[in-house]
Amino acid sequence: MAIGFMVLYTKLSNVLSKKALFYTVILPFIAFFGAFGFLLYPLSNYVHPTALADKLLALLGPRFLGPLAIMRIWSFCLFYVMAELWGSVVVSVLFWGFANQITTVEEAKKFYPLFGLGANVALIFSGRTVKYFSNMRKHLGPGVDGWAISLKYMMSIVVVMGLAICGLYWWVNTYVPLPTRSKKKKEKPNMTTMESLKFLASSPYIRDLATLVVAYGISINLVEVTWKSKLKVQFPSPNEYSSFMGDFSTATGIATFTMMLLSQWIFNKYGWGVAAKITPTVLLLSGVGFFSLILFGDPLAPGLMKFGITPLLAAVYVGAMQNIFSKSAKYSLFDPCKEMAYIPLDEDTKVKGKAAIDVVCNPLGKSGGALIQQFMILTFGSLANSTPYLGGVLLVIVGAWLGAARSLDKQFTALRQEEELEKEMERAAVKIPIVSTNGSLESDSNTNTSTETSSPQNV
């Protein structure tokens, strides 16, 4: 679905204006979520081919259990896919693409971290909303499908908020003046989908951006899955596990909020390059500590017991800190850095590169981490046995991440300097007098000066 959307988005970007492209992409999402709450879910017993799936399962055997399970509840699976794509498409491509369009690099250093802060505040409100409607089901009478009622309310809110997004987009385009960009941007002809993919693959700038996104997805997946496997061993009780995860979520929110406030100072003090390297550096250092406690837990056990903790508990705490600091750095620094990197690009590269990276590379990073772990488990028998090799893979991935960030910093700085030079040349061009068709200068001051110097002197 993600790759299919990227292909379709690339084709539409060649034929539609930016405004038409925005509405063409977001309105199907709004329509689907409304239709799911009021049509697909209430009619799920009629639209799901349960009997056909049972017959095919008996005919084809258990090897096809997965695909047949998806077919059995296809509308629910489609809802999950659309919900996943909402984050990649509407938030990453549409929102951040529009923000890049109306924001300068200097403004981005101030406001992009605040956008992330607003997203975390919105998460609090959405969580309370879901909890409110979940509790409402307890007060309904017997025989009432409480989930169907809750779903209608929540999907109604989604539709209203989606239409509000469209209204705000229209208002900003109509009444807010856009920043002036250099008019000497490189213009590119319309390209086919394959030509666009080849063009993006040939761009070192886009390749480095893609490396950043994929490397983050793989790295955080490798550490998080390993950490959660240890967490389940340390807290086997569901209540203990949920309690710890509640504290973990609270700590993540506090760390993210604090980093959001610090991020503007980091951008202003140290610039884009340092900010882009903080997230992989944090993940590398904390990841080394986490995997070291797992691999060398037995030799460290006597020293840790003096503090009243076991190597397993120490690994759980260090892994929690690793996830907290990595995610807070990601939300406050990595995401703003990634979005700021699009700003100096020409419009064609910006639109198509962003679609390719946000819609394809984000899922690729997550699935890449999962594939690496599955390969390791099949090769070494278990996740525990593959832990040393996962640590080595993490070092390689983060090393490539840091190299891409260093390369991208040089290219980003060069593009900014080029853009500033073009603006200076445009400002200087305004001061150059324009010569009319009869050869005289149209500027009054220059005309007077020219007359004085060229007129014959009276002797």
UniProtKB/TrEMBL annotation:
<keyword id="KW-0812">Transmembrane</keyword>
<protein>
    <recommendedName>
        <fullName>ADP,ATP carrier protein</fullName>
    </recommendedName>
</protein>
<dbReference type="GO" id="GO:0005524">
    <property type="term" value="F:ATP binding"/>
</dbReference>
<feature type="transmembrane region" description="Helical">
    <location>
        <begin position="389"/>
        <end position="408"/>
    </location>
</feature>
<comment type="similarity">
    <text>Belongs to the ADP/ATP translocase tlc family.</text>
</comment>
<feature type="region of interest" description="Disordered">
    <location>
        <begin position="433"/>
        <end position="459"/>
    </location>
</feature>
<keyword id="KW-0472">Membrane</keyword>
<feature type="transmembrane region" description="Helical">
    <location>
        <begin position="111"/>
        <end position="130"/>
    </location>
</feature>
<keyword id="KW-0813">Transport</keyword>
<keyword id="KW-0150">Chloroplast</keyword>
<keyword id="KW-0067">ATP-binding</keyword>
<dbReference type="Pfam" id="PF03219">
    <property type="entry name" value="TLC"/>
</dbReference>
<feature type="compositionally biased region" description="Low complexity">
    <location>
        <begin position="440"/>
        <end position="459"/>
    </location>
</feature>
<feature type="transmembrane region" description="Helical">
    <location>
        <begin position="278"/>
        <end position="297"/>
    </location>
</feature>
<keyword id="KW-0547">Nucleotide-binding</keyword>
<dbReference type="GO" id="GO:0005471">
    <property type="term" value="F:ATP:ADP antiporter activity"/>
</dbReference>
<feature type="transmembrane region" description="Helical">
    <location>
        <begin position="77"/>
        <end position="99"/>
    </location>
</feature>
<feature type="transmembrane region" description="Helical">
    <location>
        <begin position="151"/>
        <end position="172"/>
    </location>
</feature>
<dbReference type="GO" id="GO:0031969">
    <property type="term" value="C:chloroplast membrane"/>
</dbReference>
<feature type="transmembrane region" description="Helical">
    <location>
        <begin position="248"/>
        <end position="266"/>
    </location>
</feature>
<feature type="transmembrane region" description="Helical">
    <location>
        <begin position="20"/>
        <end position="40"/>
    </location>
</feature>
<feature type="transmembrane region" description="Helical">
    <location>
        <begin position="304"/>
        <end position="325"/>
    </location>
</feature>
<keyword id="KW-0934">Plastid</keyword>
<dbReference type="InterPro" id="IPR004667">
    <property type="entry name" value="ADP_ATP_car_bac_type"/>
</dbReference>
<keyword id="KW-1133">Transmembrane helix</keyword>
